[in-house]
Design brief:
Helix 4 packs parallel to helix 7 and helix 7 packs parallel to helix 8. The N and C termini lie far apart (about 45 Å). The chain is globular. By secondary structure, the chain is α/β, with parallel strands linked by helices. A 6-stranded mixed beta sheet has the order 6-7-8-3-9-10, with helices on both faces. A 4-stranded antiparallel beta sheet has the order 2-1-4-5. Helix content is about 35%, strand content about 20%. The protein binds adenosine-5'-diphosphate and magnesium ion (MG).
């Protein structure tokens, strides 16, 4: 032996990332249901040199509300974008409803983080809701009365039908969030991906949104929310995916949302007293 220490696994180039993911990725014990809404295997995503997600395995269960939690920069938004096929994937696979992502894309609706939207864009509430139909209508397709009615029904579901002609920039944060949820509802998808839908909204909007999400679940649809409020995880969600670059834990809230996995996910950023106040079930 030369006495040289082996080089640590550094994630400096995509090629290295791919090797490390193939060699060192976690091994799944039970295979996921073949038609699960979303199955992610060995997913590594990198913007430039720095990976945002590393060798992540995750399975979204059908007919459940799933929270994706983790500290800022953990890769939560990136996870949703990977599920939409719009994140720079270095390695790994993403399938939806047992199909390649491209074939299932129409069954997935997305509500982006409110902060990432340009709210000065001059568009009315009804136009935003109608955007949910673009996939079936096409950009130059006709907006028929029936389609307009569907968009209005989606707005009614979030209590925003009275604002159809209002410019979106003139709504409150909570109202804007509802309109974007309406856009996703108009799409009538089977898998809903929402990025921090409760961030910066008023209490009435939070109630309205969780009621809609529960209705979607009752209809057998699947919902994944990036969620920042640890205190409501147990109330709102059936399952959690805890991320911090890697998958830290995944499963039913009662099993996976533990003090230990919270500590592993947030490290020193979460006070022990805070964890103790969460009334964890395990
Ligand atoms: P989270 O949603 O958990 O806060 P993100 O998925 O937004 O985390 O980001 C994960 C990491 O990837 C962060 O370090 C962030 O700075 C980086 N990142 C996200 N989007 C981009 C991008 N478009 N270009 C470069 N880096 C990005
Ligand atoms: Mg984010």
């Amino acid at each position: 032996m030369s006495g040289k220490r082996p080089e640590p696994v550094r994630t400096t180039t995509p090629a290295r990332i791919r090797l490390a993911a193939a060699d060192g990725g976690p091994v799944e014990v039970a295979p996921p249901p073949p038609n699960a809404p979303l199955v992610v295997r060995g997913l590594t995503v990198s913007y430039g040199e720095k990976p945002a997600l590393f060798s992540v395995d995750a399975t979204v269960a059908a007919g459940a509300l799933t929270a994706v939690i983790g500290p800022n920069g953990a890769g939560k938004s990136t996870f949703l974008k990977a599920a939409l096929g719009i994140a720079p994937r270095v390695s790994g696979t993403v399938t939806a409803f047992g199909r390649p992502l491209e074939e299932a894309r129409g069954r997935i609706a997305y509500v982006p983080q409110r902060a990432s939207v340009d709210w000065d864009f001059p568009v009315r509430v009804i136009d935003v809701a109608l955007m949910g139909l673009y996939r079936e209508v096409g950009l130059l397709g006709r907006i028929t009365g029936a389609r307009r009615a569907r968009a209005m029904a989606a707005l009614a579901r979030v209590g925003m039908d009275g604002f159809a002609d209002r410019q979106i920039g003139r709504l409150s944060g909570g109202q804007q969030q509802r309109v974007f949820l309406a856009r996703a509802l108009a799409q009538s998808a089977d898998l809903y991906l929402l990025d921090e839908p409760f961030a910066g909204v008023d209490a009435a909007t939070e109630k309205a949104i969780i009621a809609v999400l529960r209705d979607l679940r009752a209809e057998g649809r699947s919902v994944v929310c990036v969620h920042h409020d640890l205190a409501t995880v147990t109330d709102y969600f059936d399952r959690v995916l805890m991320l911090n670059l890697r998958r830290i834990a995944e499963g039913p809230v009662a099993e996976a949302f533990t003090a230990e996995s919270l500590q592993a996910t947030y490290g020193g950023r979460l006070e022990t007293a805070h964890i103790a106040g969460l009334h964890l079930t395990a």
